[in-house]
Amino acid sequence: MREIGKKAAAVLILMAASVASGCAGAGARVRQNISDGGGATSSAAKPPKPSIFPDGARLAPDSRIFIKQSYLSASEVEQGNLNGAYFELDRSDGTGRVGMDPGLIGVWSFSTRYDMIDDSLMISAQRRSLMVFFSPDFAIAVFGDTHPGTGVALRINDDPPFRTERGPLFSGEEARRILEGLRPGAVVTTQYTEWPRRTTETDRWEIASAEIEALATIADWIRKNVDTSRIKASSTR
């Protein structure tokens, strides 16, 4: 298996473990985040976490950059529009959201992970049961509580489905063909065997072309502009 496969699989395993063991805690965190987003702040404003991008570098020329305060922390956030899709980027860690809804509800989430051992940068996005890995190499995964040793399926519109015999990942030329099928906008259907009941889980929704183009633009911009020395500095204690 190529390195991207190992790294992507490790991310999927960690996410699945988090879902399985941390539902109650996750719910509490979600409730806290909603509360924070509603305007709850501490008595004293927190200094923002340092940005991992150079000063003055913007994802979009007409974007809005501001300090977003929550109860526990503050960070520099950029909001704007790319290719017709709305985005929000947390400039302290390279996470954010992309979607057609101005309120960014029920949309794509993306993240940036830097490996301090091999200096690789993993940029990925997720919506519902679909994950796209833009870096270090391209891959696509059907994500869920997938039963070990089983395969997954992905269908674009009414075209013949893509399938794996074992595991959730599509890579190489197959992953690129999936991306090209999504670029014009499409109805995507995913299917996997759920653990532990071995039931077949099917998910189907519409993806806008603007969302895919915005995610690709963001991944490329992060790859070109992220300052890994700032990541290392913020992680050194």
Give a description of the structure:
The chain has 237 residues and is an alpha+beta fold. It is built from five helices and 13 strands. It has helices at 3-21, 23-37, 172-182, 209-225, 228-235; strands spanning 64-69, 74-82, 85-90, 95-99, 108-114, 121-127, 130-135, 139-142, 152-156, 162-163, 169-171, 186-193, 200-207. A nine-stranded antiparallel sheet has the order 1-2-3-4-5-6-7-8-11, with helices on both faces. Residues 17-42 have low confidence and may be disordered.
Largest sheet, order of strands side by side?
A: 1-2-3-4-5-6-7-8-11
Mean pLDDT: 86
Q: What series of H and E elements makes up the topology?
A: HHEEEEEEEEEEEHEEHH
Computed CA radius of gyration, to the nearest angstrom: 18 Å
How many helices?
A: 5
Anisotropy-based shape: globular
List keywords for this structure.
4-stranded antiparallel beta sheet; 32% strand; 5 helices; 9-stranded antiparallel beta sheet; alpha+beta
Summarize the structure.
The protein has helices at residues 3-21, 23-37, 172-182, 209-225, 228-235; strands at residues 64-69, 74-82, 85-90, 95-99, 108-114, 121-127, 130-135, 139-142, 152-156, 162-163, 169-171, 186-193, 200-207. The strands form 2 sheets. A 9-stranded antiparallel β-sheet has the order 1-2-3-4-5-6-7-8-11, sandwiched between helices. Strands 10-9-12-13 form a 4-stranded antiparallel β-sheet. The protein starts with a helix and ends with a helix.
